[in-house]
Design a protein that fits this description.
Length: 226
């Protein structure tokens, strides 16, 4: 069942045909592509192609990311298929996986981590704001897939009401054992939001994945502070 088929795709930055890299932005529960697409302006990389898909009824799957997986079907599988189609679209336009970054917040971060886990390879990067791998407590993840040094930034509060910090640590361990280079940042008492340090971490990851034109040409600073 293609739950999320036909939902709008919002874009910003440079068209795929001309872009030097791509970022797929995955919004959280109850949000919209327009909400998370604001990060394109904050991260200030107009040379990249920014793509933000929409979830049907503003939710990628109906229950907690720590519920039994079967309870979130067919929505979860449909959401993963949608991300796969976007990654394929990016590659068809000539942008390799090594210059493709997935970035998600909350439910979108959970979905993004699950997609990369299930579809391992050398991505340009994975940015997870308040999220983790999908599955009930006690889930055992295979670490046979090879992420080949994919840089991962994972930031979350230690008291997030939706994301147990233990799942953040599990996600770091699993992706690291699969060969990702993971930066985990836990922020005491922060709550369920994105802070300045996380934005800076995401900007560094993007700039390493696809160096800004000014850097490639020997120029100066790659972006202003937010």
């Amino acid at each position: 069942m293609k739950v999320h088929t036909g939902e709008p795709l919002k874009r910003a930055g440079t068209p795929l045909e001309e872009a030097r890299g791509a970022v797929i932005l995955v919004h959280g529960r109850g949000a919209t592509p327009e909400n998370i697409l604001e990060l394109a302006g904050v991260l200030d990389r107009p040379d990249l192609a920014w793509m933000a898909p929409a979830a049907a009824n503003r939710t990628w799957y109906n229950h907690s990311f720590m519920a039994e997986r079967e309870k979130n079907e067919p929505h979860l599988s449909s959401a993963l298929e949608l991300l796969a189609s976007l990654v394929d679209q990016v590659q068809e336009k000539g942008i390799p996986l090594e210059r493709t970054v997935l970035l998600g917040f909350s439910q979108g971060a959970c979905l993004s981590s699950e997609f990369v886990y299930r579809n391992p390879g050398r991505y340009g990067g994975l940015v997870l704001f308040s999220g983790g791998l999908i599955g009930p407590p006690g889930t055992t993840w295979s670490t046979e897939g090879d992420l080949s040094g994919t840089p991962v930034f994972l930031g979350c509060s230690d008291v997030d009401a939706h994301i147990p910090v233990e799942r953040v640590h599990e996600t770091t361990r699993v992706l690291g054992e699969m060969g990702a280079q993971v930066t985990e940042r836990i922020y005491p008492g922060m709550g369920h939001l994105v802070n300045r340090d996380e934005i800076q971490g995401a900007r560094r990851l993007l700039d390493e994945a696809v160096p800004p034109p000014s850097e490639r040409a020997g120029g100066g600073d790659s972006g202003s502070d937010t």
